[in-house]
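To the structural biology subgroup,

Please find below the input and predicted structure for CLUMA_CG011999, isoform A, which we are adding to the shared reference set this quarter. The sequence is reproduced verbatim from the submission form. If anyone notices a discrepancy with their own records, reply to this email rather than editing the shared folder directly, so we keep one authoritative version.
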Amino acid sequence: MYRINVYYEINGVNMKKPVLLKLMPDEGIQSIVMEKNNLYPREIQVYSELLIECENLLLACNDPIQFAPKCLYTSFEPKSLLMFEDMRDKGYKGFPRNSQINFNQALPILIKLAKLHATTAVVYEKKPEIMKLYLEGSISTNPERQDFLIHYRNCASTLALVIENEWAPEWRNTAHKLKQLADVIVQKGCDLYLRDENAFNVFNHNDLWIPNLLFKFDDNNLIQDVLFVDFQLSYFGSPGIDLNFFFYGSLNEDTRKSFRHKLIRIYHETLAETLKKLNYMKPIPSLHDIQIEMLKTGMNGVLAALAEVPLLLMEDSENLDLKTLLADTPEAKTFRYNLFNNPKYRKFIQTLLLEFDDLGYLEC
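Predicted structure (tokenized):
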């Protein structure tokens, strides 16, 4: 990602516009993963077609909204790239590093997510072909899409090793379950993305965590607006995919434990209201339906807690790259061990491991 200034002239007046350039890497494991997983074509279509359709639907209902930074230009040749407006000029910025989201901060995110989910369900009803690129999950049995999946095995097995070596003896049984989980975690991920065509399905961001959100704060540091970025892993399926990933990958413990059901209710109220406003023709899911979907897709919360939160809570991300997460070298193994041995992560994951065990997500 590059931040640049574009200089141009209109009617003899010199102009400057700050923009962001997102380029596909030319080489290395990241380039291989992105090319095999068709990530740039996915993201380009999201910005150039799908989000525009969704925003226009709400605009026609007197509910103007912006889901993401405006994409100014896309190209596949000579390089795959996207050019975005630089939202810093409009007061947007990322969330403070090493922080997690509280109840009040979660509200605008879930309200906007509900509107995105609702509008995409309506778009799919009218133009099902628009979701063609998003029908395959980011974890699948497709032989062309296996390069990144070892990351999930590495996360489960490394956490098991840290628990064995660093935690109290009463956690040994959990370590054993995580070792077993490492052997089947990819298959569990594949099962997670088996779409039920008879259920309520939506376009999922599918990587909805703090680094993929931009915030606009007011003078009291309250969130005025939020934008979604990075749609490379997007998937059409159960709304529980996004909800579980966000709840377990971004919310702080108090918010998740004390306000989970209230947040789900608020999400559902906005979802149902938006579907009605847009004259959705199929049955509108009940709150009970959404709760069931969250249980069915709960494994995505496990994946978020194991694979994303350690990166969110690490103190120094300067040496982090995809190769380090996937490699089998002694240096990479040491890096991953230290990542999971972070005291902040231990505090976060201990409560969740008990919850995941009680829900049956660690059973193999």
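Summary notes: The beta strands are 2-10, 13-23, 71-75, 81-85, 92-93, 202-204, 213-217, 223-228, 235-237. The two ends are 40 Å apart (CA to CA).

Regards,
Lab coordination
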